[in-house]
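Spend some time on this chain, tokens included, and walk me through the fold:

. . .
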Amino acid sequence: MAIETYDLTAIPIVKTEFVVNTILIILATAAVVLRLIARRTRRIDLWWDDYTIMISLFLTYFLYAVQIADAKLGMRVHITEVPADNLTLLLKLLVAYQLIYGTVQALAKISYLCFYLRIFVNDEFIKAVKIVAAIVVAWWTANVLQVFLICTPFKLNYDVTITGTCGNRPAAYTAIGAINLITDVAILLLPIPTVWKLQMPVSSKIGICGVFAIGLSICIISIIRMQSMTTLDFNDITYDMINPVFWTVTEPSLAIINACLPVMRHLMKLVFGKKAWFRSKSDTSRQYSTTFERMQDGEYPLTNLHDRERGITSSSVAAKKAYSMGEDESEKSYDETKHEPRSNIHVTTAWVVSE
């Protein structure tokens, strides 16, 4: 097989997109490293939200490597000018690209959802998280099936010299992209109702929601990627594939960064100071709860995971203990006890608060 290589920096747009994704890959790597440091400094055990995001980052490196390989094989060069062997390898990489992309995205979404399971205690919310997780798994399965079944025989995906038939690729890409977008939006919106029910200033609620709103950039990129995939010209795919390839690396990189932001709050607190994260503008004497019931700043939650078994109504009181612990310490405490079997003996302390 005679492969001809191209200069990665010869075509301006190829060079620009390579530089952008290089920066994003570095930032995503830094985000995961800081996430692990935050876990270690707080002595919080790693859980599925951490494991899935690490695997997602590892697979994103493969997407980045494929982008580089595509550029060297003739991406943004018209198909009539690309050697046949280059074209075959490019098309094979495109198949791998779709499989890895779907897996990376699914793992990043599962990381978000596992993080929610780690810190929220509301039964209805947990059920909603599990439903979204099931949809994500179904979406990943559909993406894998689409890759392997869209063309018959499968070899037609990368060998244009044989006869066969391919299904409606734009329609398949639209369906996969639409479900991907829906799950992104669902994951971002899940915590919002809980946030707005908290006893805290509206300005603080908006700030917390803003952290989740950063994920809207991922939704926008999902739309852009879906549009680039549905308009992909397979008759000149080597020239037209540049934008789908670029966005396929950009989207998961940003998703990984966004998934790590809430976990890095402790490190940010050390850098910028505690007051920047916890002080309320409207009432400095009273501390308010954050969006996470298991990571409280101002209210010490008396919510019990097994309320229905004991007939106790959920409640919370403002207490100095929660503030002194800080949200990361509260998460640490939860992490140490959440997997205890129900057969264990638990001591319940009744709180009485008088004005």
The beta strands are 151-152, 165-166, 299-301, 316-318. The chain has a mean pLDDT of 80.
